[in-house]
Amino acid sequence: MKQQYDSSLCRCRLIVGLVTMLSAMVFAGGTNGWDFAADLPAGGHPLRALWTVKQGFDVPEDGGIAFDLNCTNPELFSHITFTAIRGDLAVPAMVGAADLRPCETQRIYLTRRDFTLKDLVKDGKLPDGKLDDWSGFESLRISAWRIAAKPADVKVHIANMAEFHGPPPVPLVPPPNAKALVPPREGERRFISCHRPYGVDEKSGWDKTARRMKACGFTDVLPLMGRPGGVYYRSSVLPVVDYVTQHGDQLEACLKACRQYGLKCHPCKVSFNLGRDCPKELSERMGKEGRLMVTADGRELKRWLCPTHPDNIRDEVETFVELAGKGVDGVRLDFIRYFGTDTCFCPRCRALFEARTGAGDGWVKKLKGDPALLEKWDAFRCGNITAVVKAISEKVRARHPGVEISAAVFTGDRPVNIARVGQDWQDWLAKGYVDHVSPMTYTRSRNSYLVMLERNRAGIDAGRCYPYIGPSVWPWFDKPVKPARLREQVNAVREAGCYPGFAVFEFSEYSSKLCEKVFGKSGKSGE
Q1: What confidence tier does 225 reach under pLDDT thresholds 50, 70, 90?
Q2: I need a surface site. Which of 135, 190, 243, 377 has the fewest CB within 10 A?
Q3: Which residues of 205-324 form beta strands (DSSP E)?
Q4: Residue 37 and residue 49: Cα distance in Å, rounded?
């Protein structure tokens, strides 16, 4: 281990969105230790507690790194991310906070398999999906991501950080032990997402894909059919991708297969995200037209569209009206949100906020230090997203009554989601803008999943909520995924007794085989 020695006290304090670092380290008797703290006020800010352990380390191939962790309030967080930093390289590993016991020291073991490279691959930094050099990391960044809105004074202690060799004596996540499925409730709906518009793969197409979905016992299909930059069906609203010319209308193919095998079809369309594969010229054109989100420091987000631009709003409304008129059972909203807390500060959004609130000059710089102003900003952003959802709902219901409207949404306490991405999906349900939602409860930890299920049902009619289960996400952290892990989360939903079903993300080449192992090929799904 490479160590930095410093005799001063390490303490970090967060105050209403501002992170003030007074970092140092303490070493004694051959050990090393760091003490951190975070004052979290009630509400949605700050969204995470952020600390840094400034100590060099390697992650050996035959083992990993280990350290003692003690956290006073893990129940406040959905997960804690430990990110290995080397220059501009950041490699994260995630621990479900619900797997931690309050005020109890636990030994955490992180192997190379626990660190995920997915973002590095998607950003083109690791095109072959491999990190060859696991040495020379300079620090470990700790991010505790908030899920609860209640106030707390959080204290964290980390000590005895060291490399280890051989298999870890304690697994990062408790192993699943679900050997059988709990029988479903009568009338259970089982949604399955597919994020390829042509089915599980191009060779299979929608006929074979839908047949396999039906054999697994799924009842409703959520096929992703496009983004603002292009769709995989014949459209008079958005550009049609070349794939349709070569291979035909994929929504028609999907709908035909769903009808043949008795499945309901709810095409999904991404709202305010252009996607990682967005052509550069499209993003540049959107920028010139003032349609992109902008950060507080004036930086355009090349893949994100501003929800207040009239053309963006028009496209969303007309697209979902068009989709609803194609004989489908429902339409699914996805990415109907902001990128994060630092958007959108484009000239139009600034002017709108000033006009509605009377905010004076320099309000952007004062925002994070002024709780009252921050509350108005959250309400402004939330209102913008809700206005788009309302407009979509009113037009779809007026022209195509009977077509369901649903949305994929963030999970967590209501104030946290409002602050994070401007989503108040509890309000959408209460006002009837959507018929049902699927919170993105993506975690491989059973304990964390149970916490998310409990928080999602707070203050809503849980009979209109179909929580997600994310086997396509788990392989980023846990290969290969054990069928028991999928079983235990299906059982958790069923044993909760209040949810009318669940949604699985998603029917990829990998997770489709997992679904067949768990649900079988007979269509029973535990029945």
Answers
A1: very high
A2: 135
A3: 220-223, 226-227, 230-231, 264-265, 268-270, 292-294, 300-305
A4: 9
Distances in whole angstroms, Cα of residue 145 to Cα of each of 154, 209, 395, 513:
12, 36, 37, 32
Packing angle of the helix pair 509-519, 205-215 (nearest 10 deg): 30
Q: Does residue 443 contact residue 469 with C-beta atoms inside 8 Å?
A: no
What number of CA atoms fall less than 13 Å from residue 393's CA on the CB side?
A: 18
- Residues 6+ away with beta carbon under 8 Å from 437: 406, 407, 408, 409, 425, 428, 429, 464, 465, 466
Other CB atoms closer than 10 Å to residue 523's CB: what's the count? 15
Query: Residue for token digits 């209102």?
Result: 383
Residue 468 tokens read as 């997600």
> Token pair of 253, please?
């193919």
Answer for the pair 76, 148: CB distance below 8 angstroms, yes or no.
yes
Q: Which tens digits make up the pLDDT trace of 152-164? A: 899 999 999 999 9
Helices 483-496 and 446-456, packing angle to 10 deg? 30
For residue range 298-320, list pLDDT tens digits in order: 999 999 999 999 999 999 999 99
Span of 18-32, 33-47, 92-106, 279-293 with lowest mean pLDDT: 18-32
Q: How far apart are CA 58 and CA 64, in angstroms?
A: 8
pLDDT band at 283 (very low <50, low <70, confident <90, very high): very high
CA–CA distance, 329 with 343 (Å, rounded to integer): 34
Packed helices 371-399 and 347-357: angle between N→C axes, nearest 10 degrees: 110
Average of per-residue pLDDT across 518-523: 72
For residue 112, report the phi and psi dihedrals to the nearest 5 degrees.
-60, -30
- Cα–Cα dist 481/485, whole Å: 7
Is the separation of the CB atoms in 213 and 507 below 8 Å?
A: yes
Q: How far is it, in rounded angstroms, from Cα 477 to Cα 485?
A: 13
pLDDT digits (tens, 9 = 90+) for 347-371: 999 999 999 999 988 999 999 899 9
Give the separation between CA 288 and CA 446, rounded to whole angstroms: 46
Q: In whole angstroms, give the CA distance from residue 272 to residue 294.
A: 13
User: What is the four-CA torsion angle of 509, 513, 518, 521, rounded to 10 degrees?
Assistant: 110
The answer to whether residues 425 and 385 touch, using CB atoms and an 8 Å cutoff, is no
Task: Return the structure tokens found at 342.
Answer: 């630092």
Whether 487 and 518 have beta carbons less than 8 Å apart is answered as: yes
Cβ within 8 Å of residue 395, ≥6 positions away: 317, 320, 321
Structural domains in the chain plus CATH codes: 11-165 (2.60.120.260), 190-519 (3.20.20.80)
Helices and strands (H and E) in the chain: how many: 14, 24
